[in-house]
Amino acid sequence: MDTWRLLLDSPARGAWNMAVDEAILHHIGRGASPPTLRLYAWTPACLSLGSAQPCADVDMQRLKARGWEVVRRLTGGRAILHTDELTYSVIAPNDEPRVAGTILESYNRLAQALLLAVKYLNVSVEMQEAVEPGAILRNNPVCFEVPSAYEITVGGKKLIGSAQARKKEGVLQHGSLPLIGDLTRICQALAFESEAARDDASKRLLERATTVEGALGREVGWGEASQATIRAFEAQLGIQLKEGHRSESESKMAEQLVEEKYDHPVWTERV
Fold first, then answer.
1. String of DSSP letters for 180-206
2. SS (H, E, C) 96-130
3. In this structure, is residue 71 part of a structural domain?
């Protein structure tokens, strides 16, 4: 049984969270860090954009008025408002068997672990391959309204949003499991042509996505969700997770990436 490092991180700013994921990826590429499952959260609430998503999708005035932040991810996909959730990242070398092969093959393996994690929370979930989204979805800025491969759903509603990047250093996949709260909050931080369009987007989102609380009818805390995720990844992927810490080198690189990339408009506003 292979051993992976487990990182359980305190809530942090979006720029720091994204910088840590990338710093770990660089160290894994150099053989300086082991395959890692990282579980974390965000404070304050932060809107993350996919790597190629237009910054014009964001209503900066509304975002700042709410005390929220914005960051651009290394991975693709559409916008997610990170708050009241469990965020996971899987970072491993390209030749690690659990992430080897095509994007869809590795995505499916990790999705099976995520599916089991939610089942451990007693949520009646299923996984289905995505249908081709229509034009209204292709043009939509909201991640949880857009179908994805092997998406995890509850009663037809999307529960987990994930995205993957494959680089020469290795594979990074991270994703969001909303635990509680109003999913439509994200619409208050995005740009729409009218308030009617904003209201319509909010209604569609509630029809197509849900939280763990919405599925169970009770609140599930970060600790309970993280323990279910740890247990499921070990059981499904056949690994042993050993809790560890970031290396000094990883932390220093993360600090540099915050300053030079993730907190910098050249990166955030580049599209």
1. SS-GGGGGGGB--SSHHHHHHHHHHHH
2. CCCCCCCHHHHHHHHHHHHHHHHHHCCCCCEEECC
3. yes
Positive or negative, the CA dihedral 59, 61, 66, 67 is positive
Kindly report, residue by residue over 183-239, the tens digit of the pLDDT: 999 999 999 999 999 999 999 999 999 999 999 999 999 999 999 999 999 999 999
Is the residue at 144 inside a domain?
A: no
Cα–Cα distance, 238 to 67 (Å, whole number): 41
Residues annotated as catalytic (active site), given as ranges: 143
Write out the residue range of the structural domain in which residue 117 sits. Answer: 2-122+161-179+219-268
What is the distance between the alpha carbons of residues 232 and 245, in angstroms, rounded to a whole number?
21
- The answer to whether residue 254 sits within a structural domain is yes
Query: Looking at residue 74, which CATH number applies to its domain?
Result: 3.30.930.10
Q: Give 174-186 as a 3 state SS string.
A: EEEEECCCCHHHH
| Residue type at 136 in one-letter notation | I
Q: Rounded distance, CA 161 to CA 176, Å? A: 5
Output the pTM of the full model.
Answer: 0.94
Q: Reduced to 3 states, what is the DSSP secondary structure of residue 84?
A: coil
Contacts of 84 (CB under 8 A, 6+ apart): 178, 179, 180, 181, 211
Taking only the tens place, the pLDDT of each residue in 2-11 is 999 999 999 9
Rounded distance between C-alpha atoms, residue 131 and residue 121, angstroms: 27
Number of domains in the chain: 1
Residue 216 to residue 220: CA distance in whole angstroms:
9
Q: How many CB atoms lie within 10 A of CB 12?
A: 16
The answer to whether residue 148 is domain-embedded is no
